[in-house]
Amino acid sequence: MRKPLFLLFFLLCAQATAQTEEPLNFSILGEGCLGQVSGFLNNGSAANPAPGGGLWFGISLGDQWDGLFGLDYYTMPNQPVTVNVAPTTANGFVSYEVVQPTDDFALTLNARWYWDKKYDRIHQRFNAVPYLLVGGGMDLVVDQYPPPVPNPGFYGKSFDILFSMNAGAGMDFPLFDGKQWFLYVEGMDHLIAWQGLTQVMSGRIGFKVMLDSAHADPFRGVF
Q1: Residue-wise pLDDT tens digits, 122-168
Q2: How far out from the chain centre does Cα 23 lie?
């Protein structure tokens, strides 16, 4: 009698395991933010709040980890900044240049570590979980040279490629059935390195949608 009962129990467990859904692994995130710009590129005076936004793509790396590629936009103060472009020579001469940063486009690789497991396999839904964020990459800072310059709308603009870092914390809030859509809020510190540090402290709010590997494949149906 025990053997048939054991076999029945085994078959029921196997069927329940087979019906368990795997969590979606890929994500697309869109967000808006307001930031406080301070430091070198802010030239010592505040031009805040500075609006911005971002579009991020993510992949699950485990029960408590996500890897993310981010494209962010931050508004720069649009104020003149004096930059030392050459070292001091023997006669004490130093070469300076004045630029006026107006916009910043950040490309970063980031990691999220969640305080607890993101996915509840028993109830087959995502959890509301706080997380920490860290990352780094490069920024393309638009420098509008202050007038007078010839045709400042075109000739006066240039780009500087600068190193940057991200650090922050936030929380995911599952929406609807908790399987695909999220609202998230986070605070992030974005540091830009150029002769001195510029810091963009921002509060961010956004939506995240989860996708499976087939729907995340941009070449699906092409080959």
Answers
A1: 888 999 999 999 999 999 998 877 665 544 554 456 788 899 999 99
A2: 22
214, 220 contact by CB (below 8 A)? yes
User: How many CA atoms are closer than 13 Å to the CA of 217, on its beta-carbon side?
Assistant: 8
Helices (H) and strands (E) in the chain, counts: 2, 12
What's the pTM value of the predicted model, to 2 decimals?
Answer: 0.79
Q: Which of 203, 189, 216, 215 is nearest to 34 (CA)?
A: 203
Tokens standing for 49? Answer: 């709040």
pLDDT in tens, 105-126: 999 999 999 999 999 888 889 9
Write the CA distances from 155 to 76, 80, 150, integer angstroms: 19, 17, 7
Q: Tell me, what DSSP letter sits at residue 42?
A: G
Q: Is the peptide bond before 148 cis (omega within 30 degrees of 0)?
A: yes
The architecture in CATH of the region 23-177+188-216 reads Beta Barrel (2.40)
